[in-house]
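Example 3.2
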Amino acid sequence: TLNPCRLLNPIAWTVCDQGVLTGSWGLVAGWILPVSIVAALFGVLTLPSLGEWSAFAALSTASAAQKGLILLIVSVAIGLTLSTMSTPLYRILEGYAIWPAKWQRGRIKHHRSRRQGLRNAVTRNQNDSHSSAVFNALALEKFNRYPDDDGQVAPTMLGNAIRRFEYYSLDRYKLDSQICWYHLRAAAPEAMGKEIDNARSGADFFVCLLYMLLLLSLSTIAAMFTPSPDWPRLGIATALGGVGAVGSYYAAVKATDAWSSAVKAMVDIGRIPLAKSLGLRIPAKLAEERDMWLRVGWLLSFAYKSESGTELDPYRQSSHTDSAHETDR
């Protein structure tokens, strides 16, 4: 069968099909592929102007096969490095890291105001019988990229788009998915975990592409100070780096829609086998289930106290109950 990696990029195909990263399609598509794309742009647009620098002289005169091999090695090395740094890279774009506190507060205030404006637009469109269903759906889509609680609003668009599904399980079930994330992944059906990885790889792709395009822009600026810069190519690289980085950010925000749906589905479905795995039973009433997950969060988050275990006892399954369930099946 034809490998999709081979269609997208020969470097990505070499990496995943030849067994270097077998089974890690999300890593290849999300981090190595965008690195290889920008590395190729660097080689075509920026490298010719850097040929007089000793550090790039050998690379600029290398054969096509040698350049291809170097491109492969560089793409894998940088892609793996960026994937291990994904958390801080995301936190910068979410507005949690590096940015000054005053800026964070100002942006949170801005996004709370924007969220309220979108809420009003959705309500206004729903009450207007002449309003287009398409515009109603678009307004609702933008509003849904914010968390349900105004107190959970983040400083940036990407931060809010991610925070909406991070907060979902706590809002609906009092289940803290940040604390129980690996528990949920282990208990949920394997297919759901793959869906989340595939959905996240879309956001990873654009986040990685954004950072790589910024690096391309910086290298292009450096190339402008060489003795004989190739201005037409450097102009194209500058435009691609700037416009592409901005476009990648907005594309990453939209790419979180599939990621959000996958995580929410895993919470809705995965909490049931999770409860069983923890030796608990789902109560008949939702209010009681919310109380149970709240106490599970306390048990997992803080040092153990005897009252923590006592409060969970009413929700625990006895061995007799388990045996009866097995017999019924």
